[in-house]
Structures are given as C-alpha cells and as structure tokens.
C-alpha cells in the first residue's frame, strides 16, 4: 500500500511539472536582448532636435563553404558566415548647437550589408 501511495504521489508531481512546462509560453530565445531593426530616438543626444537613428538586430548565419570557393581561398575555412546590419535607407545631417557637432538623423531603416563588410 505504501508503494502505491508513493507511485501516486510521484505521478501527481510529474503531471504537475508537465502542466507547468506546457503552460510556459513558447519563446524564441535566439534574439533575447536584441530588438528588431527599427528607427529609435537617440536618448544620448538631448536638446531641441529629436535625433532618430537605426538600432536593433538583423540576421546572421553560418553555412558550409562551397568546395569550389574553398579551392580559391588562401587559408581555407570550413564555414562561411553572412551577416546583415541595421542601416539607414535615408538620412540627413543635423547640427547639435550646444555641442557644435553634426550627426546623421535617420528617417528609414532596413537590414542590409554591414558597411564594414563592403570593400
């Protein structure tokens, strides 16, 4: 009788844990801490002008290097990576009076080739 109570208690505990795990929302945790690429106000530049700049994340991926590309590499690598960055489609210069500097005020953002990857 004692083993039946123990088995019943274990089954009850297991079903309770499965209920909690099933009710927990299914989250895609691959981009936690990095929001989608969008136009956001730059809070580090106070003043009259609201300066908006592109902030956020875009995709990056890694894939096996094709054989014909690997044959042309000076230092062959098994994997190749590709990334895009959150960049401005359109922007214009704004003068920050109190600091005497010019900054780019973005008007539209999108994911595109990272500037530091372009040659």
TrEMBL record:
Signal peptide residues are 1-23
Report the locations given in the UniProt record: Secreted
The main location class comes to secreted
Q: Which GO terms describe its biological process?
A: positive regulation of steroid biosynthetic process; thyroid hormone generation
User: What does the UniProt keyword field contain?
Assistant: Disulfide bond, Glycoprotein, Hormone, Secreted, Signal
- Tell me the Gene3D superfamilies matching this sequence: Cystine-knot cytokines (2.10.90.10)
Q: Which domain of life is it from?
A: Eukaryota
Q: Which InterPro entries match?
A: Cystine-knot_cytokine, Glyco_hormone
Question: Which regions span the lipid bilayer?
Answer: none
Q: What is its quaternary makeup?
A: Heterodimer of an alpha and a beta chain.
State the family it belongs to. Answer: Belongs to the glycoprotein hormones subunit alpha family.
Q: What is this protein called?
A: Glycoprotein hormones alpha chain
Source organism (scientific name): Cottoperca gobio (Frogmouth)
**What's the encoding gene here?**
cga
């Amino acid at each position: 009788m004692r083993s039946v109570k123990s088995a019943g208690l274990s089954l009850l505990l297991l079903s309770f844990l499965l209920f909690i795990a099933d009710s927990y929302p299914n989250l895609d945790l691959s981009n936690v801490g990095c929001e989608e690429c969008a136009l956001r106000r730059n809070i580090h530049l106070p003043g009259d002008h609201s300066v908006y700049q592109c902030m956020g994340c875009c995709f990056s991926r890694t894939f096996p290097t094709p054989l014909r590309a690997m044959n042309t590499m000076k230092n062959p690598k098994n994997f190749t990576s590709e990334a895009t960055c959150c960049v401005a489609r359109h922007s214009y210069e704004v003068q920050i009076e109190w600091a005497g500097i010019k900054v780019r005020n973005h008007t539209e953002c999108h994911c595109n080739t990272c500037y530091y990857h372009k040659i």
